[in-house]
Design a protein that fits this description.
Aldehyde Dehydrogenase, Chain A, domain 2, seven-stranded mixed beta sheet, five-stranded parallel beta sheet, globular, binds 2-aminohexanedioic acid
C-alpha cells in the first residue's frame, strides 16, 4: 500500500524538537479491509510452503536488518525520542527474534501420544493459523511487531500491521526492508506483509474482521479492555500486551551498587516509556535512606537532552499529552502526601515544542490510587517496608502484572520471590531491573496486562492451530472409553 507514503493528512513529528518529519496519507477502512483480503489470499499460498523454507525468508529479513541496523536504529530514535543506543538495541532485538524464528522453523514440534486403543496412534500437528493482525505502540515501534512478525511468518501466517500513528515511518522502513528480503527470496505471495496507516478506526477494522484469526495488540489496559471482548465476540483469538506497574523490591541484604544501576536504567531509561519500566520501588527501611539518597544523586546528574547526541541518557517524552499526564500524576501524588524530587520540564526555552523532563522520584506514605495507576512517564514511587512479606504484598497489590524484580542476597527471599506464592507477574527477576528482557523468554504478563505471551519460549503456539490426530492401523474399530456400539 505504497500510497500511504505520499503527502497526506497524518503529520508525523519528532519528539526531539517537535519538527515535522513526514506527512502520510492515512488509509480508509475500505483500504484496511482490502489489505486483510490480500493477506488472507497470501496466507492460503504461504501455509503450504514448508516451514524451513519459510524460515529462509526470515533469515533474509534478518540479513537486511543487520545491514540496515544503523539507519533503522536512527529512525527509531528520531521518531520515538529514545537514545541512539536504545534505537540500535531495538533493531538488535529484531535481529535476535529473526534468528530465533529461523531455528524454530525446523522445530514446530507436536507430541506423539499413547492411545488407549490397540492398533491406534495419537499425535498432534501444528498448522498455520491465518491472518495475524498486529497493533503496536509508539514506544517499541519496530521490535514488538518483529516479535509477532518473525514468528507468524515461520508459522505460515500472513501479517497486517497497524503501527502507532505516532511512529508510522519506522513501520514503512521495516516494510521496505522486508520487501528487499522478499525480492531475494523470490516467490513470496502478495499480501504476506501489509501495513495499514491510520488511527483508531483502522485498528477497529482489524479487531472486527473475522478473517483476522489472531489479533496481537500492545497498548494500554483501557485499549485491551475494548479489544479483548470484541475479538472474543467473533471467536477470534487475541494476544494482549497491556499496561504494567512494575516494582523493584530492595531487601536489606541487597548489593546497593547493583540496585542503583539497575533501578536508574529501568526507571529513568527510555524516559520511563517502556511497558517494563520500573514504576515502584519497595525498599526495606534499613537501607531506604542510603538508597534513595544515591538515587536522587544519580537522577540529578542524568544527562537529559537530544537523544541523538552522544552522552545523553534520557530523551524526551513522546508529546505534550504525555507531559500533562506526568504532571497530573505528580500533582495527585503530592495531594496524597508524596514528596516529589524532580519531574520538572527541561529545555523549554530552546525546544518549546518538545517535552524533556527531569525524571521524578516520589516518596509516598502508602500505595495510593495514583501509585496503582500506570503513568507512561519517568516517575518512580518509593514505598518503604519492614519485611519481605510486606514488600511482596505491596508488589502484588496493583491491577497490573507485567514485570517485577528483587535485589537481595538472601536466597530464601529470592527463591520465595520467584516461587508459586511470590511475584504474580509474567516476568520476575533477581538482581536485575524490570526492563530490558531478552527475546528468548516468553514476554507478557497477568491481570490487567492481558495474559498474552509473545517472543521466545513456546509463544509460537499462539500463532498456529493445533490438530489432534488419531490413526487406526488395525482391522478393528474399538471405541474409546470402552463404549459398545455394535452394528
Ligand atoms: C515494550 O515496552 O512494549 O523488556 C516492550 C524490554 C524490551 C521490550 C519492551 N525488551 O524492556
Amino acid at each position: 500500500m505504497q500510497a500511504a507514503a505520499s503527502g497526506g493528512d497524518l503529520t508525523v513529528v519528532s519528539p526531539i524538537d517537535g519538527a515535522r518529519i513526514g506527512s502520510l496519507r492515512t488509509h480508509s477502512a475500505q483500504d484496511a479491509a482490502a489489505a486483510i483480503g490480500r493477506a488472507h489470499d497470501g496466507f492460503k499460498a504461504w501455509r503450504t510452503v514448508p516451514a524451513p523454507r519459510r524460515g529462509e525468508l526470515v533469515r533474509l529479513f534478518g540479513d537486511e536488518l543487520r545491514a540496515g541496523k544503523e539507519t533503522l536504529g536512527q529512525l527509531v530514535a528520531i521518531e520515538t525520542g529514545k537514545i541512539l543506543s536504545e534505537g540500535q538495541g531495538e533493531v538488535q532485538e529484531m535481529i535476535d527474534i529473526c534468528d530465533f524464528a529461523l531455528g524454530l522453523s525446523r522445530q514446530l514440534y507436536g507430541l506423539t501420544i499413547a492411545s488407549e486403543r490397540p492398533g491406534h496412534r495419537m499425535m498432534e500437528t501444528w498448522h498455520p493459523l491465518g491472518v495475524v493482525g498486529v497493533i503496536s505502540a509508539f514506544n517499541f515501534p519496530a521490535a514488538v511487531w518483529a516479535w509477532n512478525f518473525a514468528l507468524a511468518i515461520v508459522c505460515g501466517d500472513s501479517v497486517v500491521w497497524k503501527p502507532s500513528e505516532k511512529t508510522p515511518l519506522t513501520a514503512l522502513g521495516c516494510q521496505a526492508l522486508f520487501e528487499r528480503a522478499a525480492r531475494k527470496f523470490g516467490d513470496v505471495p502478495a499480501g504476506l506483509s501489509e501495513v495499514v496507516i491510520g488511527e483508531r478506526h483502522i485498528g477497529e477494522v482489524l479487531v472486527d474482521d473475522h478473517r483476522v484469526a489472531l489479533l496481537s495488540a500492545t497498548g494500554s489496559s483501557r485499549m485491551g479492555r475494548e479489544v479483548g471482548p470484541r475479538v472474543a465476540a467473533r471467536f477470534g483469538r487475541s494476544l494482549l500486551e497491556l499496561g504494567g506497574n512494575n516494582a523493584v523490591i530492595v531487601a536489606s541484604s541487597a548489593d546497593l551498587d547493583l540496585a542503583v544501576r539497575g533501578i536508574v536504567f529501568a526507571a529513568a531509561g527510555t524516559c520511563g516509556q517502556r511497558c517494563t519500566t520500573t514504576r515502584r520501588l519497595i525498599v526495606h527501611s534499613s537501607v531506604k535512606d542510603a538508597l534513595v539518597a544515591r538515587l536522587k544523586k544519580a537522577y540529578a546528574g542524568l544527562p537529559v537532552g537530544n537523544p541523538l547526541a552522544s552522552g545523553v541518557l534520557v530523551g524526551p517524552l513522546i508529546d505534550g499529552r504525555s507531559f500533562e499526564a506526568m504532571q497530573s500524576a505528580l500533582r495527585s501524588a503530592k495531594e496524597e502526601g508524596g514528596a516529589v524530587t524532580g519531574g520538572e520540564r527541561l529545555l523549554q526555552e530552546e525546544l518549546p515544542d518538545a517535552y524533556y523532563v527531569r525524571p521524578a522520584i516520589v516518596e509516598m506514605p502508602a500505595q495510593t490510587e495514583t501509585v496503582k495507576r500506570e503513568t507512561f512517564a519517568p516517575i518512580l514511587y518509593v514505598l518503604t517496608c519492614d519485611s519481605f512479606e510486606e514488600a511482596l504484598a505491596l508488589q502484588n497489590d496493583v491491577p497490573q502484572g507485567l514485570s517485577s524484580s528483587i535485589f537481595s542476597n538472601d536466597v530464601r527471599e529470592t527463591e520465595a520471590f520467584i516461587a508459586a506464592g511470590g511475584s504474580d507477574c509474567g516476568i520476575a527477576n533477581v538482581n536485575i531491573g524490570t526492563s530490558g528482557a531478552e527475546i528468548g523468554g516468553a514476554f507478557g504478563g497477568e491481570k490487567e496486562t492481558g495474559g498474552g505471551r509473545e517472543s521466545g519460549s513456546d509463544s509460537w503456539k499462539s500463532y498456529m492451530r493445533r490438530a489432534t490426530n488419531t490413526i487406526n492401523h488395525s482391522r478393528d474399530l474399538p471405541l474409546a472409553q470402552g463404549v459398545r456400539f455394535d452394528v
